[in-house]
């Protein structure tokens, strides 16, 4: 099984995830489609940040979903997520990581999101 993410490989969260998973970062939603076309593996899990009010991202997502018909012989799982950083922060918060923020309002928002 090949894992892809549209995030940039040099981001801190990407480095953290790649230390735990065998995952390839593609730097954009648009590059995901190119990589699916270029690779020979038959099994893919693709994690895409999909923000409903961003027409470009939704368009990229729909184009990638269109690969289902073109690659009926492949197992392609497109997994839309709001953003990778959300899940990492949520996981860290759930295990008790004590965040220190420059602004108090950020701590309040994070606490409200994850409690």
Protein traits:
115 residues; alpha/beta; four-stranded parallel beta sheet
Task: Explain what the structure shows.
The protein has six helices and four strands, in the order E-H-E-H-E-H-H-E-H-H. Helix 2 runs parallel beside helix 3. The N and C termini lie far apart (34 Å). Strand 1, helix 1 and strand 2 form a beta-alpha-beta unit. By secondary structure, the chain is α/β, with parallel strands linked by helices. Strands 2-1-3-4 form a four-stranded parallel β-sheet, sandwiched between helices.
Q: Report the portion of residues in β strands.
A: 15-25%
**Basic shape:** elongated
Q: What helical percentage do the residues reach?
A: 40-55%
Largest sheet report: 4 strands, parallel
- Give the overall pLDDT as a whole number: 79
Number of strands: 4
Strand order of the largest sheet: 2-1-3-4
Write a brief caption for the model.
It is built from 6 helices and 4 strands, in the order E-H-E-H-E-H-H-E-H-H. It is of the alpha/beta class and about 120 residues long.
Topology of this protein?
Blueprint: E1 2-5, H1 12-18, E2 23-25, H2 29-38, E3 43-49, H3 55-65, H4 67-70, E4 75-81, H5 84-94, H6 104-114
Parallel strand pairs: 1-2, 1-3, 3-4
């Amino acid at each position: 099984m090949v894992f892809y993410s549209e995030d940039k490989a040099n981001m801190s969260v990407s480095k953290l995830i790649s230390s735990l998973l065998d995952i390839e970062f593609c730097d954009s939603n648009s590059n995901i489609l190119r990589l699916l076309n270029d690779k020979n593996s038959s099994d893919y899990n693709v994690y895409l940040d999909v923000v409903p009010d961003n027409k470009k991202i939704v368009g990229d997502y729909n184009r990638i979903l269109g690969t289902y018909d073109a690659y009926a012989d492949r197992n392609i799982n497109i997994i839309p997520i709001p953003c990778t950083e959300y899940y990492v922060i949520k996981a860290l918060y759930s295990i008790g990581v004590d965040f220190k923020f420059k602004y108090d309002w950020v701590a309040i928002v994070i606490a409200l999101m994850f409690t």
